[in-house]
Amino acid sequence: MEKINIFCFGFGQVAKYFIKKLKAKNIKINLTVTSRQRTCQKVFDGIEYNSFQFSQDSFDKNLIKSLESSNYILVSIAPINGEDIVVKNFQNIFVGKKIKWLTYLSATSVYGDHKGEWVDEKSKTNPTSATGVQRLKAEKSWMELAENQNLPTQIFRLSGIYSHENNVLKRLKSGDTKIIKKENQFFSRIHVEDIAEVLFKSLEKFKPKEICNISDDRPASSEEVILFGSKLLNIEPPAVIELKSIESEMTRNFYKDSKKVNNKKMKEIFNYKLKYPSYVEGLRNIHNDII
């Protein structure tokens, strides 16, 4: 693959793992990112790059030149006040540009509650949370833009992300977690390394205007995962509390949804075998690295 110009709207853990994957595969890149912080030059994993200030209210106009010259674009910024700020500010920049790959990272919260049943990309989207509603609205704005301007756009609906930096083992060790009891409660998860691998594979196996779930094989309750993590750490499981006793509205809303996310389309399109097919393999790997 020739040297690519990649522009990351947002530079969180998924984007960083993706860039590390590109470097590991010896792909030469020119990297530009955005951040809410002031514009500056930085270095990540030995790669020098420009980080341009971009927030809901303002952005550094100098980023436009870099965006115009970029042919690979990753969007991982969440919508703000129900609006996708990338589409809002830059949709006209994409007109007539030779973009080869544009990926918007959404979330499986767009499905809402399916009473513990399986969902796939054809399932009804009926989000119950404010974030899910906003994500679905953002997806539609990207698909409209893709259609109107013939942009090569794909949408990845990510399940709950965990990584070496953010995982239940860390929360258990810090005492910052509880077992919340609720029957028939299922969540799907995905290790950030698997997301990065699928993003990499999509460079060659790109399917424009497609929506794809990115999830592992084994949906499970948070209780199941916490108990497994406690066993790995050889500690007593945390206290069990009832959902109705939770004060945080955000947490209560999170537990409204119960679904199992089907990943068949991901595996078929990208011919991908998960590195971490479930939380078991993922947490064991994390645990092996921290002991």
Q: Would you kindly provide a brief summary of this structure?
A:
The protein has 291 residues and is an alpha/beta fold. 35% of the residues lie in helices and 22% in strands. The chain is globular, with a radius of gyration of 19 Å.
If you had to describe this structure to a student in words, what would you say it looks like?
The structure is a single chain. This protein is an alpha/beta fold. It has a single domain (4-163, 189-219, 261-275), classed as Rossmann fold (3-Layer(aba) Sandwich), CATH 3.40.50. The chain contains ten helices and 14 strands. It has helices at 13-24, 63-68, 85-90, 130-149, 168-174, 192-204, 222-233, 249-254, 264-270, 279-290; strands spanning 4-9, 29-35, 40-44, 47-53, 72-75, 101-107, 118-119, 153-158, 160-162, 179-181, 189-191, 210-214, 240-242, 260-261. Strands 3-4-2-1-5-6-8-12 form an eight-stranded mixed sheet, sandwiched between helices. Helix 3 (85-90) links the parallel strand 5 and strand 6 (101-107). Helix 1 packs across helix 6 (192-204) and helix 5 (168-174) packs across helix 7. The longest helix is centred in the middle third of the chain and has 20 residues, at 130-149. The chain is globular and about 55 Å long. It starts with a strand and ends with a helix. The mean pLDDT is 93.
